[in-house]
Amino acid sequence: MEKTKYVERDIPEISLANFEQRIDEITAQLVSAAENVGFFSIADHGISADDIETMFGTSESFFSLPDEVKATVPWNPQNVGWEKMSQVRPSTGAPDTKESYQLQFGENMKGLWMSDSHVPGFRENCLAFMQRVQKVSERLMICFARGLGFPDDFFLKVHDTTRPNSQSVMRLLHYYATPETNDGTIHHRAGAHADWGFLTILFQREGQSGLEICPGRDVVTEFALGDKWTKVDLKAGDIICNIGDLLMSWSDDRFKSTFHRVKAPCEPGDYYGERYSIAFFNQPCKDAVIQGPKKKYPEVTGEQFTANAMKTYFAALKAKRESGIPLGIYEAGQDDMGSLRAVGCGYHACICGTLRKPTLEFVRRHFYIQARPLLQNITLKKQALDASLNHHATSFPYYSGHHPTNHQGQPTDKPVSKKPSNTTAPDHLRSDVYATRGPLKTKFGSTPRTARANASTPHLPYLSNMGVNFSKLEETADDALGFGKTFARSFGQNVQIALWTSIVLMIFISVALAGIAVILWRMLLILEFVFSAYKREMKRAKQK
Q: For this chain's UniProt record, which GO biological process terms are given (predicted)?
């Protein structure tokens, strides 16, 4: 396999010291970094090293809990809660070897905060840290607004975390240790992607990096600088920031959203141990109006941008499937709200597994339209652990636009450029090693086909607690879909018969009413004739 090509690039370091007095200088530095690299680090930001380390300690305490406990706060389509090994990026075709816990400010977190009985002070510590990061974010937003010619509070208003439709997220991340007996294959703890949101602020421990950037992307802009990566290392206490697709659109492509990844160690000197990081994703409210000062792209809302990004994802994924590149495990994702997890394909897994290559058209067009009301409860059993998978999503969760896009989330006509040299996931990351331990039963009574264990293949080291062949979930959904189609067809035929019967009855009743009206009219004429004859006879009688 071709080794990664590296090149040294200057990652700007910007101090926020004396912010009010130096705001013009800081703005110029931030704008330059956003225009030329898309990544930069900030120092003197006001968050102490002790506060950062305390938050990392809180994160470690959470991830050290048993999976059964973490599964009590499962990820849901509002992008809150815990997930494990549920992201597979098209750039790698293999799941990211990590788990994460998404936290928000508002009502979406109801019932999804880890109890203080498991991690003392968890909610209080997290919210306090989130508020500190939000204040740093707001300073950067003021500078970016100035740089684009907007009022200082322009971005502050649409990122108001006190609003119910606030979407900003803090994500605690835990990457698993990698065995040092590597065969030389380069895998990735987080595959190459670009964040779809506004601005990402990343905290990582010194010596635990692995973060790499690659300015350039397959889009319709002119920002494409090649495929050479740069390792990102930072000083203790510094914060890494990167521009997202949404801010790139908002700036009319002046600011650059950059590809980045977290490569698993495979070379001398790499860090093989566990890696912890904390990412804060600034994302505007759903009703925010997104359009740059030059109006390069049509005006869209935050919600519309996300919906368009979903369309982009499906178009790119379909193109990749048609190119013959095996996806291995189907589910796109990235370190932001755009993760298309198992929930997005119609399942809510408390321990968040992935799905193996469900049919694209099935996922996109049929499941939510026809099978959603039917496939309500699928129960998986492994030893003493029950994990209920309940489909309750009203729509796909948000997706990140890291595939070909014009930064309004709309697909481009550019095809996937080429196949990667390694198109097959390594054995320890393959999805076909899962084995079911018990039948899957649907709520409406049918018992779908049960998978057979593949005894010759070892289980995933980080998914051993799953014990499930998720490819069989597609068969279950197909069963539900077939039932739904049959029911819909029968129901439609009955409705058609009832409609024609109603029309015939209405015609019959109309004719009958018309006949009755004619009879009544004739009776009135007869009565009028009789009354006239009576009057004439009475008149003659008086004359005599």
A: small molecule biosynthetic process
What does the DSSP assignment read for 14-50? EE-TTHHHHHHHHHHHHHHHHHHTSEEEEES-S--HH
Distance, CA of 309 to CA of 312 (rounded, Å)? 5
8 Å CB contact between 433 and 459: yes
Q: What is the pLDDT along the chain (544 residues), one digit of tens a residue?
A: 456 778 888 889 999 999 999 999 999 999 999 999 899 999 999 999 999 999 999 999 999 999 999 999 998 877 899 998 875 555 555 567 789 999 999 888 999 999 999 999 999 999 999 999 999 999 999 999 999 999 999 999 999 999 888 889 999 999 888 877 766 555 567 777 788 889 999 998 877 777 888 876 543 334 445 567 888 877 778 899 999 989 999 999 999 998 888 877 777 777 778 889 999 999 898 889 999 999 999 999 987 886 776 666 556 556 655 665 444 322 222 232 233 222 222 222 222 223 333 344 434 433 433 333 333 333 333 333 333 222 222 222 322 223 333 334 344 444 333 333 333 333 333 333 222 223 333 333 333 333 323 333 232 222 223 333 444 444 555 566 566 656 666 666 777 788 888 898 899 899 999 999 999 998 999 998 898 888 888 888 887 6
Which residues does 15 contact at the CB level (< 8 Å), separation at least 6? Answer: 26, 42, 43, 44
Q: Which domains does the chain have, with CATH numbers?
A: 18-289 (2.60.120.330)
* Tokens matching residue 208: 């635990």
Give the CA distances from residue 352 to residues 116, 187, 305, 339, 386, in Å, rounded to whole numbers and listed in that order: 23, 21, 26, 12, 13
Q: Is the pTM of this model over 0.85?
A: no
Q: Which residues contact 306 (CB under 8 A, 6 or more apart)?
A: 196, 398, 399, 409
Q: What CA–CA distance (Å, rounded) separates 61 from 66?
A: 11
Q: Residue 411's CB: how many other CB atoms inside 10 A?
A: 20
Cβ atoms of residues 374 and 488 within 8 Å: no
Distance CA 127, CA 113 (A): 11
Q: Which residues contact 336 (CB under 8 A, 6 or more apart)?
A: 169, 171, 195, 196, 197, 200, 244, 279, 281, 283, 400
CB 243 within 8 A of CB 194: no
CA–CA distance, 409 with 290 (Å, rounded to integer): 12
282 touches 198 (CB < 8 A): yes
- CA–CA distance, 228 with 91 (Å, rounded to integer): 15
